[in-house]
Amino acid sequence: MKAARYYDNHDIRIEDIPEPTPANGEVLIKVAWCGICGTDLHEYLDGPIFCPTHNTPHPISGETAPVTLGHEFSGVIEALGEGITDLEVGDHVVVEPYIINEDVNVGPDSNDYHLSDNMNFIGLAGRGGGLSEKVAVKRRWVHKISKNIPLDQAAVIEPLTVGYHAVDRAGELPEGSIALVGGAGPIGLLTGAVLRAKGITVVISELSELRRKKALEAGSADYAFSPAETNVVEEVRKLSKDGRGADVAFECTSVQVVLDTLIDAVRPTGKIVIVSIWGKPATIDMHKIVMKEIDLRGTIAYVNNHPDTIKLVESGKLDLAPFITGKIQLEDLIDKGFDTLINHNETAVKILVTTDPQNLN
Ligand SMILES: [Zn+2]
């Protein structure tokens, strides 16, 4: 079967590799669509980061490069390994793409398996990936979805769940709360969509006019301001009930000035959730954190959030279609996929990849 294999930075090859067979407790999935993630771009430009190198196997998967890429995917069950009785061939599914040590509690009561030692992802550190025709995945990480969700939109559930967990990290947010999202990249947009689906008023601060337009059109924001043209802190205060600022803010850019704006824009006792990956230390005005009793929190990936995120999509309260800005075949992964996202990232949100030419008709 065809698969996109990561060898090293600037070295991803479309190759023919053997089809996987499902071991006991594994589900064989025929991939329908797989999204390209910012993480994939980082691996391509600056990696290996999550991917193993040629000579250092990942401690859990045991695999070295090359590894198959792709962790945002949807598909249809083609076969079931022994011992699986609660799924059927033909079911539509998405994958929570974790590689986690066997001795970690990954049950429904866990809220920290995603923070366990050497945690990594299917499609980055081994165990196959969505940028291929088929993948075998342990039952635990397979989530059945309604056939009412189109399979292309279902491929966006993985990054949407990142937004869902970020919102969850903010704790109780009564309906009518005001949230400020810094940055309208894919994760900022999806976080905004989750917030609005929960009845929260969303303000997005974003420099790019095209991205602001997308945020409003796609249902990710009620208001979108340019921090170059508008005093975002003042606007957020005006929109808040008592003029004191946003109840919560989400940092989705890893840009210092955005973090500074969020610190100024949240109300006393407000919360700031850091969603982006920071490659360098930030400067934080601790006096402001202290004097407003701000809660500054991190969030990474997701933990037991897939079932609720899938329910939210099934409820129809948010529409994932506007976030799909391109569909390509696997052969065009680098030329039409990576290149577009790296060089034309103002208009591109999610580009989906398929190995099945029929999907593109
Ligand atoms: Zn991702």
Automatic annotation (TrEMBL):
Residues 7-330 form the Enoyl reductase (ER) domain. SMART domains: PKS_ER (SM00829). The keyword Amino-acid biosynthesis does not apply. Gene3D superfamilies: Medium-chain alcohol dehydrogenases, catalytic domain (3.90.180.10), NAD(P)-binding Rossmann-like Domain (3.40.50.720). GO terms for molecular function: oxidoreductase activity; zinc ion binding. Keywords: Metal-binding, Oxidoreductase, Zinc. Pfam families: ADH_N (PF08240), ADH_zinc_N (PF00107). InterPro entries: ADH-like_C, ADH-like_N, ADH_Zn_CS, ER, GroES-like_sf, NAD(P)-bd_dom_sf. The keyword Ubl conjugation does not apply. Its cofactor is Zn(2+). Belongs to the zinc-containing alcohol dehydrogenase family. This is 2,3-butanediol dehydrogenase. The lineage of its organism: Bacteria, Bacillati, Actinomycetota, Actinomycetes, Micrococcales.
